[in-house]
Amino acid sequence: MKCEHADDADLGLTTDIRVCPSCVEAGDTWVQLRVCKVCGHVGCCDSSKNRHARRHFEETGHALLGPANPGGPGGDWLWCYEHDAYVTRGGEVG
Questions:
Q1: 3-state SS track over the chain
Q2: CATH class of 4-87
């Protein structure tokens, strides 16, 4: 099955941001960072207290994200909130 959200995304989008700006503003910490593959927003993951990446999706509908540091220990992957599944670089769900 094709993820239609991949059509609106820049699957190669990365960032140099290494903090969750919303957590820093609130004086909180985070577990891992995620980058929105539509606009480049950086937010903390679902394992973090504030789940800013998910909040960004809920506010904007930008469904695709990946790790903010794809060369790091978490690897390189894509996730679609709408499909609740991983997405391949070719845009396939699963």
A1: CECHHHHHCCCCCCCCCCCCHHHHHHCCCCCCEEEECCCCCEEECCCCCCCHHHHHHHHHCCCEEEECCCCCCCCCCEEECCCCEEECCCCEEC
A2: alpha beta
